[in-house]
Amino acid sequence: MEVLDVLNLGEIAQYFSKMAMFPVFDLAYYIVSILYLKYEPGSVEVSRRSPVASWLCAMLYCFGSYILADIMLGACPIDYFHNNSHILLATAVWYLIFYCPLNLFYKCVAFLPVKLVLVAMKEVVRARKIAAGVHHAHHAYHHGWFIMVITGYVKGSGVALMANFEQLLRGVWKPETNEILNMSFPTKASLYGAILFTLQEAHWLPVSKSTLICLFTLFMATTKVTLTARHSHGSPFALIESWVCHLLFGSPLSVAEDAHDHHAPPPAAAPAVPLFPAKTKEELSEGTRKRKSKKAE
Amino acid sequence: MEVLDVLNLGEIAQYFSKMAMFPVFDLAYYIVSILYLKYEPGSVEVSRRSPVASWLCAMLYCFGSYILADIMLGACPIDYFHNNSHILLATAVWYLIFYCPLNLFYKCVAFLPVKLVLVAMKEVVRARKIAAGVHHAHHAYHHGWFIMVITGYVKGSGVALMANFEQLLRGVWKPETNEILNMSFPTKASLYGAILFTLQEAHWLPVSKSTLICLFTLFMATTKVTLTARHSHGSPFALIESWVCHLLFGSPLSVAEDAHDHHAPPPAAAPAVPLFPAKTKEELSEGTRKRKSKKAE
Amino acid sequence: MEVLDVLNLGEIAQYFSKMAMFPVFDLAYYIVSILYLKYEPGSVEVSRRSPVASWLCAMLYCFGSYILADIMLGACPIDYFHNNSHILLATAVWYLIFYCPLNLFYKCVAFLPVKLVLVAMKEVVRARKIAAGVHHAHHAYHHGWFIMVITGYVKGSGVALMANFEQLLRGVWKPETNEILNMSFPTKASLYGAILFTLQEAHWLPVSKSTLICLFTLFMATTKVTLTARHSHGSPFALIESWVCHLLFGSPLSVAEDAHDHHAPPPAAAPAVPLFPAKTKEELSEGTRKRKSKKAE
C-alpha cells in the first residue's frame, strides 16, 4: 500500500513538473507582475506620459528573469522576445491593467481572492524557472556550481535584481537600496531554492527533481499566499537567518525588530529608522498598520 | 513612359541603397555626432581634464548604435572596434573638434549651411543602419518581429538610448529623465522606421527594401534639416501621436503645448513645467525664443 | 659572456612568464583586493547587514577584471565562476578578512611589511592578466588593435572601471566621479601596459613577450610597493603626462598642483577644489598630510 502511495505521489510530481506553463500559468505570472508594476508610485503617470517606457517596464517585470539569465550566460538578452505569443499576451495584460476603461480589469485581478489564486500560480512558474535555470547552467557548465546557483537565483528573482535600472527607466533613482542589500522573501527563497536545485543536480540531495519542484512549489505557494493574504512583508526564514547570521557573520540579533512586531515600543523603534534608511514607504506604513492593529488588540 | 519612369526610379533607389557609406557619409556622421557631444554642457572641461573619458564619449556618440545592437544580440559589444580605419577617422574628427587651434574646425562644421549638409548626410547613414539592424536581426531570428524592431530601433537611436550612462562617464547624472521617457524626434523616427522595415522584411509592406530606404532617408533628411535650420526640437508626428495616445492610452491631449506655441498664454504654460520636469534647458530657452518671436509677429 | 647573460635572462623571463599563478599569487591578489574593499567606507556595515551583498562585492573585487573582459568580448560574464577552487579561495579570504575573530587576519595582512609583499605579488598577477587579455583579444580579432588595448586595459584595471556599479551594490552612489575621469596609478599603468603588449603582439616592439612581462612586472611591483610604503596616491607618469596633455590636448600644466605640493600656497590651492570636485577625501587628507610634512621640513 505504502509503495503504491509513493509511486502515485512520484507520478503526480512527475506529471506536475512536466505540466505546460503556457498560457494559463504564464498569464497569471504576467498579471501579478504587471499588477506589482502598477503598485509602484509614479508608474501610472509614466503610462500616460510615455507608453513606450511603461511597456518596456512591463516587459522587464514579465521577462526580467529571462533577460538577466541570458545576460549572465552571455546569450542574447532579448532572445526570449522571439516568443511572439508570449510577448503579445503580456502586452495585452499590460494594456488591460493600465488602460482598461473604468479600471475594470485591474479591479478584478486586484480583488483579494482572485489575486491569491494568481499569486499561487505565479509561484508555480517561479519554481519551474529556478529549476530550468539551474538545469540550463548545468548543461553549459557541468561542475560550475556557483554558476548554477547564480543562474537559478536570477531566474527566480527576475526584475527585483535589476529594480534600480527598471526604476531608472521610469525616471526614479534610489541608489541607497537594492534587492541584494534588502532581500525580500521571494528573492531570498529564490536563492535558497537555487541552492537546493543545484544540490539536487549535483546528486547531493537524495530526491528526484520532480519531487523537489513539487515540494518547493508547495512551500512557495502557501507561504506567498499567506503573506499576501496578511499583507505582510515578513519572511518565514527570519528567525533562522537571524541566528545563522549572528553566528557566522556577527550580525546583531534582530531582537529590536521582533520587539517592534510583538510589543511595539515606539522609543526602541524610532532609532531603527536611520539604521535602515532603505526601508520603503510601503514597509514603513506596513509597520504602522501592524502597530495599530496590535494596539487595537 | 510610366513604366520607364518606375524602372528608373527603382534603379536609382537600388543604386542609392547599395552606395558605400564609408568614408564620406560616415565622416559626416562622426562630425555631427561629436558636434552634439561638444554642445553638451561640461564636455569641453572633460576633454581638458580627461582626454580618455572624452575620447570614450566620442566613440559612444559615433558607435553607440553598434555597441547597443551588439549587446542586444548577445555579440561582442566592442566588435565594431576591429574596423581600425573607422575608429581612426572618428578619433581624428574628435581631435579636430575638441583640440583644433583657434577652434577652427568646430567653427567650420558648426557653420549652419555646412552643418545642414552634414545633418542630411547623417540621416542617410541612420536610415541605412536601421535597415541593416532589422535585416541582421531577421537573419538571426526569422520570426522574431519584436527583436527586429528593437534591433532596428537601437541601431537608429544610437547613443541617445544610453545617454544616462554616457553622461555618467562625464560625471553627470540626470536620473529623472531618459530618452525613452522623453523621446526626441530622431529616436521616435527610428522606432517608426524600425517598425516599417520590420513590416517590409515580413512582406507585409508592398514595397521593395531599396525603395523604403530611399523614401525613409528622404523623409528623415528633409525633416531633420528643416528642424535644424529652424533650431526646433518639435516633431512632425506630434499631432497624430497626441490623438493616437489620447485614444489608446488616455493621455491628455497636448492642447496646452499647442496653445503654448501658438497663443503663448503665460498662465497656462506655467503649470506645465512641473508636469514635465525633464524638459531640458535647451528646450525651455527654445520655448522662450518661440514665444518672443510670436510676440514680435 | 654577454650572450650567455642574455640567454640566462631570457630563460629566467621565460620561466617567470610561465610560472603558475594559482594558488600563491592569486591568494595574494585576493587578499590585497578584499583588503581594499574593507578600506571602503561603509563596507563593514554592509558585511554585517547583508553578507550576500558583501560577498558579491568581494567577488567583483577579485574577479571584476575577468567579468569585464568577458562582457567586452561578448562571452558569459560569470564564466570565471566555474573555477570552483578560485571562488572558494576568494570566499575564504573574504570571510577571514571580514569576520575573523578579533580581526586577527585583517591585522596580519594589513601589517605594512606583509602588505608590501602581497602588493608586489598582486602586481605580478596584474601584469600577467594584461598580457593574457591582449593575447586573448588578439586570438579573436587578429588586427583589432583597439579591441586588444581595451581588453588588456580592462583585464588590468578590474573592478576600478566598474567602481560606480560596485558601490551601487553597497548602496553608495557617487556619479560625479569615476575611474576614467580620475585615473589612479594602477589604471593608468594598465592602459599603458595594454598599449605596450598590443604593440608587442603586433610585432612593432622588438622584445619577446616574456621579457616584456618581466620588465612590466618589475616596474609595476617596485612602483606600487614604493607608493604603498609612502602612502602616496601620486603617479610616476605625472610629469610626462602633464606635458604631453598640455601639448596635445591643451590641458593646463599642473603647476598649481606641484606648487601645492612644494610651496603649499593656501590661496592658490583653494580655488583648485571646485575645479576637481571629484577629489576623494583620502586624496585631500593626503594633500594635507603632505603639506604638513613639508612645513615640518
Automatic annotation (TrEMBL), chains A, B, C:
Q: Can you cite an annotated GO cellular component?
A: nuclear membrane
Sorted UniProt keywords: Ion channel, Ion transport, Membrane, Nucleus, Potassium, Potassium channel, Potassium transport, Sarcoplasmic reticulum, Transmembrane, Transmembrane helix, Transport
A GO molecular function assigned to this protein is: identical protein binding
Q: Where are the bilayer-spanning segments?
A: 20-39, 51-75, 87-106
According to its UniProt record, what is one Pfam family this protein matches?
TRIC
* Reactions catalysed: K(+)(in) = K(+)(out)
Could you say which protein family the record assigns here? Belongs to the TMEM38 family.
Record protein name field: Trimeric intracellular cation channel type A
Q: Which organism is it from?
A: Chanos chanos (Milkfish)
Its taxonomic path starts at: Eukaryota, Metazoa, Chordata, Craniata, Vertebrata
Gene this chain is encoded by: tmem38a
